[in-house]
Amino acid sequence: MAAHPVPSHAHNAADLSAVLTNTNTTLRNASLLSALVHKTQQLPPIFVEAEGQRPVLEMGSPPLASTHVIPIVDMSLLSSSDPAVRASLVEEIVAACEKYGFFQVVNHGVSENLILRCETEAHKMFELPLEVKERVHRPPGTSFGYGANTWVNQTVMHWAESFHMQLHPKSNIREFSRKLFTESDYTIFSSTVEKYMGQIEKLGRHLVELLTEGLGLEPTRFNHYVENECMMSMRFNLYPPCPQPELAIGLRAHTDPHLLTILHQDEIAGLQVQIDEEWITVNPRPDCFVVNIGDLFQVLSNTRYKSVLHRAVVNGTSKRLSLACFLNPPLNATVEPPPELITTERPPVYRPFTWGEYLANAYNFHPANGGERHERFFLEKS
Q: Where does the Fe2OG dioxygenase domain lie (predicted)?
């Protein structure tokens, strides 16, 4: 079989700019997503990643075949009667966040049945006709709804569909569900998603306390960031089989702007984390959640915890689903490290800012290029 020619990358920036500036948001989303939902035999040029940015696909190789392993933490050990066991667990989490910015948790308290039910509802949503999904399309400059993940300065489209919903401070889940499932009981979708997000939020608050304790602070020191008008959202990500996966990317390398991200992968590998210039595949486990430090926790920890680059790659045979939950403070919350974490050896790096201020800039800049997202919030050097 003859190989498909490699589409030109030269026109991507102009083509994508033209699509993104289309004021008709329905046409905009349709033009970005039609290649995904209508099976194509050749990758359209707008999805072709620059040669130097293309991932090397070795998804069939043993995962983590390197000196680096993203730790798996057994949270049941927190209930041990031996204080040393609990202390060792906290130390393990801290070490992972300082070195990798990622760790995984098992025995986390979220039922396997609920996870499977949420994945089932996600697949039902993505399997709806495109014209139905467009009822909840995500307009340019907004965060929630169905569409494609894009940054303002992006030059290549991600090979992915996504659906982003919010639980707090004001839920839009039932509104979206009602528009999508007009001919069935829409509350099956909404109640499942709300229950799942509620369980993840509970887990997230617990993890925030553990991470805070690991910094040598009172565990409740950062609780005001995850209470009282905190922001809690979830994004379904679907990565369809790609006709030329070696040329495409599911989600470009980025850091998360959030406080904490808690992700569940299905059985298909695709998440990769950059450690010491090496891309490490995080092998999916159904009993695991992948937890990563976001930009905000990097700031709160005065850079002890790392918000690191990660990406999603695609394959040519299997679709992949991930459920990504994001825990964030209220929009008006001021983000700055406490005085106890500022020392001569570790002076402050960032100026104080609100989450709302950071969020307004977060998706304007592709964080793998130039670091504009972070640099805009650095302290001015005297």
A: 230-329
Do the Cβ atoms of 68 and 101 come closer than 8 Å? Answer: no
What does the mean pLDDT of the chain come to? 86
SS3 266: coil
DSSP state of 79: G
174: Cβ contacts below 8 Å, ≥ 6 apart: 186, 187, 190
Residue found under tokens 């004021």: 23
pLDDT tens readout for residues 115-142: 999 999 999 999 999 889 989 988 766 7
Catalytic residue among 205, 235, 304, 320: 320
Residue 321 resides in a domain: yes
> Quick check: is 320 catalytic?
yes
Residue 183 is part of a domain; what is its CATH number? 2.60.120.330
Amino acid at 9: H
Model pLDDT for residues 346-370, shown as the tens digit of each residue: 999 999 999 999 988 887 766 665 5
How many domains is the chain partitioned into structurally?
Answer: 1
